[in-house]
Amino acid sequence: MWVYLTVLALTLAVLWVRKRYSYWKERGIPYSKPSFPAGNIRGMGRTEHISAQMQRCYKELKGKSPIGGIFFFINPVALIMDLDLIKNVLVKDFQHFHDRSVYSNEKDDPLSAHLFAMEGTKWKNLRAKLTPTFTSGKMKMMYPTIIGVAEEFLKLIRTESSKNTEIEMKEILARFTTDVIGNCAFGLECNSLHDPEAEFRRMGRKIFSFANGRLLKIVIAQQFRSVARSLRITVTDKEVSDFFMGAVKDTVKYREESKIERNDFMSLLLKLKNAESLEDGNAHNIDPLTVEELAAQAFVFFLAGFETSSTAMSYCLYELAQNTDLQNKARKCVLDSIKKHGSMTYEAIQDMHYIDQCINESLRKYPPASILTRTVSKDYRLPNSDVVLQQGSTIVIPVYAIHHDPEYYPDPERYDPDRFTPDQVAKRNPFTFLPFGEGPRICIGMRFGMMQARVGLAYLMKDFRFTLSSKTPVPLKISPRNPVLTSEGGLWLEVEKL
Q1: Element (H, E) at 167
Q2: Which of 14, 143, 271, 380 could make an SS bond with 96 (beta carbons 3.0 to 4.6 A apart)?
């Protein structure tokens, strides 16, 4: 009897999986053949980064239809390849796609309930509250804090280069951005430039450590969010959660009791906690942030700010180290701007247009977020089509694949900052460059991230020359275990003081 029941159960399970995997075929949508149980993301986290998997599907399906069918495990996912449709998803028809399809669990994992992961009205309200935090005026206000960290960064590079011409830059850049974000988001001296094992740096490494199947756990929770929440699944490491929650609560208590104000994110978040507006004369109808909500926002500023900016700078240095002419041009841009403005002022940094081009080209070639995901919040009929994307389904925009499409970027593996001159940018469809997303959910910290990357690179270009070390492979090997597009191992460069 039990044998028959087992056979029956297995037969039904196989038929159900086959039915799931026929989803796109039944709708007449070209699709990439999946394999059980991972669908089209087999090997993710072990042998291959998701950017490579999505690029393969993109190449297979592009030109056959505005969308292609793929599968994350047994869930059908729409791969959006048409630029006009991408514009609809991110901007024009945003009301159908306002959620990111990222797992959060506010009750059991309060740090996961941050702006990046929030959904619906709650996201909209918090985004409106936080948007004034990232205006040009607020960035200028925080600039002296960044410069203070950059001066310490410069001292460290001078010391290291006097001991040894070969330096592992990836870790030092992460320590620089950790100290910048720690100062600006938490108002704390993290001291990781001088102590590689400082608590903030150690926690930063732990956030992006995806050993022991943690990445798989996160992806599964993301694909089955309701089930994961009912099982009280958490995605933030407990030690990390306890550390950041404690750091925020201690900072809030100290500042409120001592009545301390600083030009940083924490002061702006404290205003929101106390139902004060960040825009003068507009203090009505603001619901206060709880300490837990405040902590979640400080946490996401930290994890989004230090890793993505340090990675972008690492890739930029890696490419400039291979091309002396481009590096000299970047250095001249920095020195000319300093000469024009008298010193490394906020205005001087804004005037370093070629440095911006170098950063943008590294973001094109190595976008930190290699895909964008969205959930369909209500049924959406594709323009001029009978195809309907069903409510609750997931869509993916393959950023890495688009950035490496020779139709948009000829010879895409070549690093060429001149792709981002104003004339070249004007010729291209803006939706061929999506390192920060686009539309209402564009990265809220984009200005801040670009500013700290500009400052870091300007300080390095001004005083040092970089060439590749024999320890650094060409091309770089991308780590399959990190959702952020990051290289495996370090970035060793020969550093010569000018």
Answers
A1: strand 166-168
A2: 380
- DSSP for 259-280, please give it: T---SSHHHHHHHHHTT--SST
The pLDDT of residue 165 = 84
Give the whole-angstrom CA distance, residue 457 versus residue 340: 18
395: closest CA among 370, 369, 376? 376
SS3 content of the chain, % helix, strand, coil (to 5): 55, 10, 35
Q: Which of 195-209, 337-351, 376-390 has the lowest mean pLDDT?
A: 195-209
The answer to whether 461 touches 327, Cβ cutoff 8 Å, is yes
Longest dimension (CA), the chain: 87
DSSP element (H, E) containing 332? helix 324-341
Give 471 or 79, the one with higher predicted confidence.
79
Which of the residue ranges 129-133, 246-250, 260-264 has the most confident prediction, judged by mean pLDDT? 246-250
CB 58 within 8 A of CB 81: yes
CA angle 237, 484, 380 (to 5 degrees): 100
The count of other CB atoms within 10 Å of the CB of residue 418 is 12
Taking a C-beta distance cutoff of 8 angstroms, is the pair 94, 436 a contact?
no
Question: DSSP labels for 362-397?
Answer: HHHHS-SB--EEEE-SS-EEPTTSS-EEPTT-EEEE
- Stated as kind and residue range, the H or E segment containing 76 is strand 75-80
Cα separation, 438 vs 424, whole angstroms: 19
Q: What's the confidence (pLDDT) of residue 280?
A: 53
DSSP structural state of residue 30: -
Q: pLDDT of 143-166, one tens digit each?
A: 999 999 999 999 999 999 998 889
- Establish how many alpha carbons lie within 13 A of residue 44's alpha carbon, considering only the half-sphere containing its beta carbon: 24
Beta strands in 35-74, from DSSP E residues, in sequence order: 67-72
The phi-psi region of residue 29 (left if phi > 0; otherwise alpha if psi is between -120 and 50; otherwise beta) is beta
Distance between CA 249 and CA 88 in Å, rounded? 41
Which residues face 388 on adjacent strands?
381
Nearest to 132 by CA among 286, 295, 254, 350: 286
% of the chain beyond a pLDDT of 70: 97
Q: Where would I find the beta strands (DSSP E) of 410-485?
A: 464-468
- Rounded CA gap, 433 and 400, in Å? 9
Q: pLDDT tens, 397-439? A: 999 999 999 999 999 999 999 999 999 999 999 999 999 999 9
Q: Encoding tokens for residue 256?
A: 């409120």
DSSP designation for 203? H
pLDDT of residue 284: 47
Q: Is 282 exposed, middle or buried (0-12, 13-18, 19+ CB in 10 A)?
A: exposed
